């Protein structure tokens, strides 16, 4: 059973407090696997990652496309020593100094996964697929130790589902039923992660009434959405989501 | 003993069976109702229960069957009857719809059955008769995917043989997938090691055991409305 | 390369002629595998199936959820003796007498596939997945002869991709770029089949200008769409799509 | 002989390389341009070519990079630069985007490389140095998925060693996946059994063969603009 709960920054509650309430309600705990949406800053659930830092859970496995930029968000989570392992496609960036330092010091485990395989492994977890054969990575370092099979003359690698205990994602709008729409390329990993985690927490730039989203255009149906943090301020202005 | 025996009345009518299933579905559940008798459960869901109906042909938030001028050929349930759309609905394609099901996101599905075994095996797609044309539809996916699979069936076939059996003789739909079996005379939990009878109508547990020739345990704890576990 | 071509019922061309032109251009031929969309009549590309009958290709393998109703559409294609094999989830219906008769007479091969596995096998074909492990059907007649594997304590069946040479589907609208939107539960198999076939032919109830569809709400991007048959009549009224 | 030798001029500039790649992309192609130098190809696509750009972070119909007030943090390319949206664009999530790629629906992708082998193996993600932090991004998916993988690179490394080699010494991105290699001095087809040189700039085929120490065949048929096969 999964009825969406809303945590709203209004009536004296700050956005940070709303995010803290959502993280607390999500049941996130030390040792868990947390899926973190976003591709660069687009779709990055900054308010939720900040709340995760305040929450204090550690020994986390973090699954995200990148491994943090600058000194905020995921990088701050890493810097706070909360992460045991990063599963991502592209940790190395011009401003990934926090990750780089921890990795080189041997204080972070790293699993590099091709970006499409990363998405597809989470899709498999959400879709009840027990494993899939995929040509990506065949014959490369990233297939080492993995089962392979030639199918239709082409080598494939057996890839296994990648599940999260909690997903933290950003979306554009939620309706009061819990349905989500995204904005442009900020959609990226959000819809897939929402299906792949036992509990999904979403930060949105506003919540609209039921009926305000076109049912044909809903990207993430409410069944995948457990907690919505509404970042719209009490003044009616919106924070980026 | 927590098994409730309604011996002061006869067996349940079909509508009463639907009402009992509806009674047990937790508030806020995402539910798929199979073709045929399970469809009748919808009318008995408590207003305000927050139950959301899924139809495997690509929709959450399905409303009641509609007829006449309200019928839209583009909006049907899995039985291909015209239905309505409720506020908060969403549409998705078949692969996404069955991913939702197979991925374990639906709380409950309700299915009919030819047979259910004591260990929760389900047979509901194929009689196995040599001239039968096999047709499975979404039955295997539903049986495999939902967190709780509830079966609605008569307890006895037309020839008087029990349909809750030690082992299915019909071809299986799914192995060990059924949680509960709702029949006109008794409600069984088959999710554990023993078949547990939770409730009877029109006869006692002792009478039922005689007729079923199956090891059946009484419930050791009460399970109220809106609780499947 | 796949630039969408439009076949329009206008200026003296009938809808049937437009459909014939699209089928001809699709390269459909005897012995091919044709994916046919629709769930019951919702999303059924009736005009395209009629054109396929007129086209005359035979020895076809038809993949569709059902195996024809009444005496029209798929049932008429079967009755015309054009189909060698049907791959579907649910052939037996109250009005499937054409299929029933041919099957019982041993004149049609039948592969019954669970509905979700049918959709997922086509999704795999479109997504470049060489095979996937799926719990559906494990321990049943439909898993006989298939490789199985216990994953996380649960038996899974290895299912292989299901490709089409040509897909015939119905959609609500196309834009002039070839993007598609659907209407309500008529969406069903269309988006998946469009990805799984080498050539996709779509009948639509109208074509709109580029820009008239919200890019966030496009369900089938134009990359999957080869031929669009516009059933909107010259009078401006629409046929069902 | 159909190999074209431009010996009356020097090697291509980076912009000229981008123009040559753009010249060869067939009209109406769906194309993914990798991060870095491949991105420069976009500016050289002929207006009206009907080429549609894919970005793996979830978009078809990507427009040029934008700056200043037009930059939208929710609309970026795979290099995380702000871009624009062209008419007829569509958005999709990451699994759908890579399904599009892996499923073979993209006609062309253009990638940079450390090395390409004579049999079309690609090495572009990892130097293999002990202190290097591995980061693959979408490179393996792109290399595996597009119908034609075009590589843009200098023909020689800074130390003067060739980057078109009998066998890659760097860790592979994909096996036998590259169709063509665009360099400042020559254009190679590596899709067949032999390395075929299609065009040279600033030196003759004979001079090139001397420098590369690789068996290279001349083209036996002309391949004009807009033709990759």
From TrEMBL, chains A, C:
This is 3-oxoadipate CoA-transferase alpha subunit. It holds the Pfam family CoA_trans. Keywords: Transferase. The keyword Kinase does not apply. It comes from Quadrisphaera granulorum. GO terms for molecular function: CoA-transferase activity. NCBIfam families: pcaI_scoA_fam (TIGR02429). The keyword Transferase applies.
Automatic annotation (TrEMBL), chains B, D:
InterPro entries: 3-oxoacid_CoA-transf_B, CoA_trans_fam_I, NagB/RpiA_transferase-like. Gene3D superfamilies: Glutaconate Coenzyme A-transferase. It comes from the Bacteria. Keywords: Transferase. SUPFAM superfamilies: NagB/RpiA/CoA transferase-like. One of its GO terms (molecular function) is CoA-transferase activity. SMART domains: CoA_trans. Belongs to the 3-oxoacid CoA-transferase subunit B family. NCBIfam families: pcaJ_scoB_fam. This is 3-oxoadipate CoA-transferase beta subunit. It comes from Quadrisphaera granulorum.
């Amino acid at each position: 059973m999964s009825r969406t709960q809303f945590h709203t920054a209004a009536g004296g509650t700050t956005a940070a407090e709303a995010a803290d309430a959502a993280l607390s309600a999500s049941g996130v705990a030390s040792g868990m696997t947390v899926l973190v949406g976003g591709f660069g800053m687009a779709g990055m659930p900054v308010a939720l990652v900040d709340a995760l830092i305040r929450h204090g859970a550690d020994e986390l496995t973090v699954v995200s496309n990148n491994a943090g930029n600058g000194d905020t968000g995921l990088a701050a989570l890493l810097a706070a020593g909360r992460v045991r392992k990063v599963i991502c496609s592209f940790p190395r960036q011009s401003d990934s100094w926090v990750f780089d330092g921890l990795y080189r010091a041997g204080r972070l485990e790293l699993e590099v996964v091709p970006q499409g395989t990363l998405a597809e492994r989470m899709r498999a977890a959400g879709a009840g697929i027990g494993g899939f054969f995929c040509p990506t990575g065949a014959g490369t370092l990233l297939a080492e130790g993995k089962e392979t099979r030639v199918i239709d003359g082409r080598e494939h690698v057996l890839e296994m589902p990648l599940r999260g205990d909690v997903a933290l994602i950003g979306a554009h709008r939620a309706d009061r039923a819990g349905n989500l729409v995204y904005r442009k390329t900020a959609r990226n990993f959000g819809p897939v992660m929402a299906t792949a985690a036992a509990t999904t927490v979403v930060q949105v730039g506003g919540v609209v009434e039921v009926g305000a989203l076109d049912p044909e255009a809903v990207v993430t149906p409410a069944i995948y959405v457990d907690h919505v943090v509404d970042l719209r301020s009490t003044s009616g202005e919106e924070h980026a989501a | 003993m927590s098994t409730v025996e309604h011996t002061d009345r006869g067996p349940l009518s079909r509508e009463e069976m639907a009402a009992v299933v509806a009674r047990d579905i937790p508030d806020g559940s995402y539910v798929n109702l199979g073709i045929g008798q399970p469809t009748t459960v919808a009318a008995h869901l408590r207003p305000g229960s927050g139950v959301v109906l899924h139809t495997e042909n690509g929709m959450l938030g399905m409303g009641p069957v509609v007829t006449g001028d309200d019928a839209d050929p583009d909006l049907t349930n899995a039985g291909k009857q015209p239905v309505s759309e409720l506020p908060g609905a969403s549409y998705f394609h078949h692969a996404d719809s069955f991913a939702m099901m197979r991925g374990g996101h639906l709380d409950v599905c309700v299915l009919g059955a030819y047979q259910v075994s004591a260990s929760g095996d389900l047979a509901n797609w194929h009689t196995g008769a040599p001239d039968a044309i096999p047709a499975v539809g979404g039955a295997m996916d539903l049986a495999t995917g939902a967190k709780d699979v509830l079966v609605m069936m008569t307890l006895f076939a037309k020839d008087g043989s029990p349909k809750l059996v030690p082992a299915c003789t019909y071809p299986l739909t799914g192995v060990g997938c059924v949680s509960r079996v709702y029949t006109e005379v008794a409600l069984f939990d088959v999710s554990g090691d023993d078949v547990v009878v939770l409730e009877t109508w029109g006869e006692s547990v002792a009478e039922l055991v005689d007729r079923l020739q199956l090891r059946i345990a009484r419930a050791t704890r009460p399970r109220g409305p809106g609780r499947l576990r």
